[in-house]
Amino acid sequence: MTQPQVQLIVSNLCKQFQSSAETLSILQGVQFSLEVGQVMSIVGPSGCGKSTLLHILGTLDTPTSGDVQLGGVNPFSLSSKQLAQFRNHQIGFVFQDHHLLPQLSVVENVLLPGLAQGAATTALVQRADELIAAVGLAGRRDHLPAQLSGGERQRTAVARALLNQPLLLLADEPTGNLDGRTGQAVADLLFDLPLRQGAMMVMVTHSPELAQRADRRMRFESQKLIEG
Prior knowledge:
Elements (H helix, E strand, L loop, with lengths): L5 E13 L4 E13 L3 E5 L6 H8 L7 E6 L9 H11 E4 L11 H6 L10 H13 L15 H12 L6 E5 L7 H11 L2 H4 L3 E5 L3 H5 L3 E6 L2 E4 L1
Parallel strand pairs: 3-7, 3-8, 5-6, 6-7
Antiparallel strand pairs: 1-2, 1-4, 8-9
């Protein structure tokens, strides 16, 4: 039997912001590891550092100190061009707001992460169509976001995040703008489709029910990430 493979290692991560008057510590000594196929949930009060941690994991921000290894690579050792390519191929994002481009159709929005290397290929379009079908939107392929429900827009965002088959999916309050039934459907999708495609997921949520579904359940206390 194949052993689970650790692909995300976070070691003693710290983040500070310097103002003219003081140094504000947001993250202190954060460390954890995650295996392919696992989901980790993070809970905590607003302003505790949850989104800051996701931004660092997504390479949208840099740590003050500490180390992140994703797939054996320290992304913060890469050049700006290498980092952009790494982020595009290895990391997928699903936010509370879908961030779809209103002038583009469902399939065009899903294709966006694949266009960094040029025009859409036949294989890329096929991949997009497969994902659109997998999230239940085959009949909405050519619709604009304004023609979709909130849940359908978020499903489109999930498909877009998975286009490049990322190793890590980051979800920041992915059901926060949805009603209970719709949010449950999107959550079911997030806990199934990415993991079947060989990804792992870190999810920030205010929902205790959603957090409890994760393999690893973490919470912030005094800028530190604690399991349990």
